[in-house]
Amino acid sequence: MNAPTTTYSGGTTITAGSILLPTGSGTLPTTGAVSIGGSGTLILAATAGEKQIGALSGTGAVTVNSGATLRVGSTSTFAGSLNAGTGTFQANNVAVTLSGDISAFTGTLAMESSSAGITIGSGATTSSNIDISSQSDTTFTLAASGGTKAFGNWSGDGAISIGSGSTLSLNLTSGASLAGIISGDGGLTVGGDTLTLTGVNTYTGK
Length: 206
Fold this sequence. Notes:
The chain is an all-beta fold. The protein has no helices and 22 strands. It has strands spanning 12-21, 34-44, 49-53, 56-58, 61-64, 68-72, 76-78, 81-82, 88-92, 95-98, 108-112, 117-120, 131-134, 139-142, 147-151, 154-156, 159-162, 166-171, 176-178, 182-183, 187-191, 195-197. The strands form five sheets. A six-stranded parallel β-sheet has the order 3-6-9-11-13-16, with no helix packed on it. A six-stranded parallel β-sheet has the order 7-10-12-14-17-20, with no helix packed on it. The radius of gyration is 17 Å and the shape is elongated. The N and C termini lie far apart (61 Å).
């Protein structure tokens, strides 16, 4: 017997409690918006594979466990938290802003396809346990006046934009290279290993 398929096309609101997407066919509507309230959680189980949604909003929490990828497919601003988990949070050909506490996350923020981008809001809390992966023609942005935002490893050739009053701090566990352009009035700090810059960078901060 085939597994049942989710067919509703509207949005999903999690006001409290949680929704768990397991390994296999369990999904939400791939274009439906997901809003998570302050005490709600969207959980992707370990080895759940890729799960796509539309826009993501709210002040609740998202957990992306090892072997799982949450693909956000519509322009989004998410003020909630990313819980501990080693999966992948991906902006899929859209712009996604994260403005909450993502410091517990130990996975990868990924940008896939042209025009995709992830912006870290000025009030967001990050940590050096979060890696960044970017394809060409994508942009990773730190909003202005955010202070120092710590991240871990960098991979890919996307661009970086660092707003005035913000510093991107990369704590590399292995060498990396970056062909994309680093722009903006903010600064860059690199520790742990070597970041090779091959682009013509224009950022002006310290």
